[in-house]
Specification:
Strand order of the largest sheet: 13-12-11-15
Number of helices: 22
Largest sheet: 4 strands, antiparallel
Number of strands: 15
Helix content: 55-70%
Organism: Colocasia esculenta
InterPro entries: AminoTfrase-like_pln_mobile, MAIN-like
Radius of gyration: 49 Å
Keywords: Coiled coil
Shape: elongated
Strand content: 5-15%
Number of domains: 2
Protein name: Aminotransferase-like plant mobile domain-containing protein
Structural class: alpha+beta
Length: 683
Amino acid sequence: MATAEKEEEMAVEDAPEGEETEGGDETEAEAPRRPRGKGRMRSRVTWDLCWAWYRALPEAQQAQIARMGFGHLLSVLPFHLDVPYLEALRERWEEDCKAFIMPWGHMIPTLEDVAYLTGLPVQGELVVGLERRDYHDDIAELLGQEFVAGRRRPIRSILLGSLSEAVGLRGRRRGPLESLDEFYARVRGALDLGDWSEERSVRIFVSYFFGRLLFATQSSQMNCKFVLLLRDLAQAGRYAWGAAMLGHLFSLLPSSSQRSQSTGGFTPFLQIWGYTRFPMGRGTLVEGRQTMVPLMTRWEVAPDPRVTDRRAGDVQVALDHYPHDQVVWTPYRGEADASHPAVAAGRPLFDGHLLLLCLGTCEVLYLELVVRTLGWHQPAIEVSSLGREGHSRRRFFAEDRDWGADHGSTVAYWREGGEQVLQVTDLRDSSAYMEDFQARYAGRLRLDRQVEVELTRLRAEVRTLRGELLRAQASRDAGASSSTQPTGEDLAVRLQRALDRAEARVWELEEQAREIGAQRQGGDVATLQAQMESLRLELEARISGLEAEQRTMVTAMEELRDDQATMRGRLLEARERQREAKTARVRIAADYEILKDRVLKKRREQQRQAQQATPARIVSAFASLDDIVSLGDPSVVRGGGLPRPEASTASRPPLPDRRREREEDEVSSSRRQRPAKGERREE
């Protein structure tokens, strides 16, 4: 795994989700690579490898993954991603109402679509949990020590290529002429699970499945927060993964449509959702799959070899002219809930206003805007009146976060089933809604362009009719026989009537074009005013924040200056004490040398005097001793003429020099006391 670790270190580890970083493995799906540029989109989904890897796992591990709720989705055969179609869809995404702006009204993928198309569970516990500042210990425990070896801390993301490399599938891609069965056989032969436990093998696969398919981003890395959801595999089977997937997709559509050349989220779901609602893509329902679940398994999508340069603009034009009466609002009629377990369990949520949670992401599902999916007439409604705004926080945090606690009210709102959307029963149709919708989104719906096309056609028809009328009148005037004159008059009358009708229609369309222009201008002015007001408020908020931050920084700088002045004074004082201590040490050393010389000189003088006085004292002492002895011993004849032996000091111990010992004690005590005094001065 050295290669993966090296690439991981080179990657931008603190990039937020949704931001693209290079360095991944199999990044593109089956869609051919296009030149990078404005309007070009790439998909980050890697479906082929996820499907083949899952099939190559042992049956026990497949069963464990199926119990977690992913078995139905992983049974879907991978298909071609229609990139121009997806690009045309994302350009119509409106962030304010979390909906696609289509010529026939708002359109929003719902939990019902998720349950029917993917089979993912939409009912259950919300995907909330911990988000840490550093995942080093968690990754080492759940995936393996090799995924953190040699990496700098804190570890916040994991390179997806390292997961596939760990099982021997690094860089495995399906060839352009390779069938799925051939690719599966190649993946099965290369898969190496080693001696890993079943739980560890499942966690590695599901982590890759999250990063490359279900919660795909525009990055080749995956936030480690998703790995923490796999600590308890039994608990993972109780999560509402479908709701989390839909919320994650909603959170990435704005960033994809504004500034990125690749898109995130589970885009195959979005593609099939569009095919079921307005069938104009490259997908076809396969014969013999009418009873297969989930419904995505019934579709087959293949690139059209006759169209080599299909662009998003072509799809946009097709959407602009798509017949409104052919839009399918209720595509699942006739489907039995018994054959769709996720649908049967999630049915109570299909008519509610909900908040979709995925860790730090909270997105709103405005079902009120698409009640036609419930078989009702759509009333006119203001998005601002719906309430409950969402938010997306995908960046890393400096401290651990518990999203279950932070989103406590939202979790309770979800468990209560949200707010049920009520049907307006006194509506006969959705015409009032459509009038309000077209007035609000006239610029985005390109109604003025449709009128211009119709005007151009009618003006050409008027020119043709005028020419025909002139020729009919000329032939009538030049006719010689009276038998042909009535025929010429009848033709001229008919042409004149057709010309009058065409001119009336032209005048009507011109009036409509002027009205649309005025509405568009007024709408543009209102939009610009709203944008300016929003920018003004945002600017004021930022200025207030910056001023508060500036005040905090000024206070901190003043405190730092005070601390700096205090420290400078203390430093000068310490330096002065150091100089005084150094001077004291020099003076003490000099005094010590002088005292030492004096003591030594005095000692030598005393020794010399003692040496001179010692023989005389010894002789007198021994003479006195002999006299004392002779007085006490009668056998000794005093003055008997016998010679007295000389006193010998060889066998006697030397007398202790008490004066010398006192002098040495004084010198040693002076040595101990002098440095102590110097030390007190130094302090």
